[in-house]
Write a structure and sequence with these properties.
The chain is α/β, with parallel strands linked by helices. It has 16 helices and 11 strands. It has 2 domains: about 190 residues, Alpha-Beta Complex (2-enoyl-CoA Hydratase, Chain A, domain 1); about 140 residues, 2-enoyl-CoA Hydratase, Chain A, domain 1, CATH 3.90.226. About 45% of the residues lie in helices and about 10% in strands. The model has no long low-confidence stretch (mean pLDDT about 95). This is 3-hydroxyisobutyryl-CoA hydrolase.
Length: about 375
């Protein structure tokens, strides 16, 4: 029996074929950036399939202008975030609350959820894939949490999954927003294996036509198709750990700038372009999250979002960062403070104070 929801205008396409529920993100012109409507569609679909005996597993992919695959999800809809953040639109609050609840559901989903992470996988795209039972990348995967470039922080559970990367890789990825490929994603624990691009369609189609004993058999079928890849940054791990284990952002940047290698100079130059305030906030976030469970991390990140957009009295680093990158595109954000050395602990501390009593927190129900 097949159930289909494939309206041409829908930004989230879903269908049940055989024993698998299939989801295709269908906003290719925006690289499948998540809108509030898409978050709500995804939540509704996953909740409906959660107790549907016909569905043994879920598979999710993105699409590009040529068709399925090619791009997974570039993150959240930052133009909406800028407009809503500039106007104090309460839908902004709903977006983050519901997105984080969706992230939590995926991490705790009772059936195998298999993410085909082809092409761009950034920000919110990581949020709907890192909790998967199987995280599949390809040779054209470009993965990053680039939020510090827009004066935000790696949210959607970023504190949780980045802090669990080996060594200090999490701090490096969170602070710089650098992009990694498939081999490094596997090496750093952010993917489970590589599926060649030309195998995606055959594997996807086989999932809908095969007969499987249970959800684990579906997951294992895909896992058996994965191949090994080479990590290009393996030799850099010691260097990454050395610098990004330092106690403060100021010390990290100072030592990078004093080093002689091209990598160190390039990394320092990248950090100098990011929001100085949010670099300090992000370092604290990742280090706090290392000892947190997912639900507590998501509640912390929800607190941080409230501070980023609503509690800085017209000085939102995030609204300014998005303006410079995606709205006016002048690539000249006016950060406040303007320099890493001018950030004080008193500026960072409020981000980690919840605006809500525990019982009234928007994500109080997460466990």
């Amino acid at each position: 029996m097949t159930e289909m929801k494939m309206e041409a205008t829908s930004e989230v396409l879903s269908e049940v074929r055989g024993q698998v529920g299939f989801i295709t993100l269908n906003r290719p012109r925006a690289l499948n950036a998540l809108s509030l409507g898409m978050v709500r569609d995804l939540m509704g679909i996953l909740l409906a399939w959660k107790d549907d005996a016909r569905v043994l597993a879920v598979a999710i992919r993105g699409s590009n202008k040529e068709g399925p695959f090619g791009a997974f999800c570039a993150g959240g809809d930052i133009r909406f975030l800028h407009q809503a953040g500039s106007q104090g639109n309460p839908l902004l609050e709903d977006f983050f609350t519901e997105e984080y609840a969706l992230n939590h559901l995926i991490h705790n989903y009772g059936k195998p959820y298999i993410a085909f992470m082809d092409g761009i996988v950034m920000g919110g795209g990581m949020g709907i894939s890192q909790g998967a039972a199987l995280r599949v990348v390809t040779e054209r995967t470009k993965m990053a949490m680039p939020e510090t470039a827009i004066g935000l922080f790696p949210d959607v559970g970023g504190g949780y999954f980045l802090s669990r990367c080996p060594g200090r890789v999490g701090e490096w990825l969170a602070l710089t927003g650098d992009t990694i490929g498939a081999g490094d994603a596997v090496e750093f624990g952010l993917a489970d294996g590589i599926l060649p691009v030309d195998q995606q369609v055959p594997v996807w189609e086989a999932l809908g036509s095969g007969h499987f004993a249970d959800g684990a058999a579906i997951k294992n079928y895909v896992a058996f198709k994965l191949i090994a890849g080479s990590a290009t940054l393996s030799s850099a791990r010691g260097t990454i750990d050395h610098y990004f284990a330092l106690p403060t952002v100021r010390e990290i940047v100072a030592q990078l700038e004093a080093a002689g290698s091209d990598w160190a100079r390039t990394t320092a130059a990248t950090l100098r372009k990011r929001s100085p305030l949010m670099l300090h906030v992000v370092l604290e976030q990742v280090r706090r999250a290392r000892s947190m469970g997912l639900a507590d991390d998501l509640r912390m990140e929800r607190d941080m979002v409230r501070h980023c957009f609503f509690l800085r009295a017209g000085q939102s680093e995030t609204v300014e960062g998005i303006r410079a990158l995606a709205v006016d595109k002048d690539h000249a954000p006016k950060w406040s403070p303007g320099c890493i050395e001018d950030v004080t602990p008193e500026m960072v501390a409020p981000f980690f104070v919840s605006p809500w009593p525990a019982y009234a927190h928007p994500l109080a129900a997460l466990v």
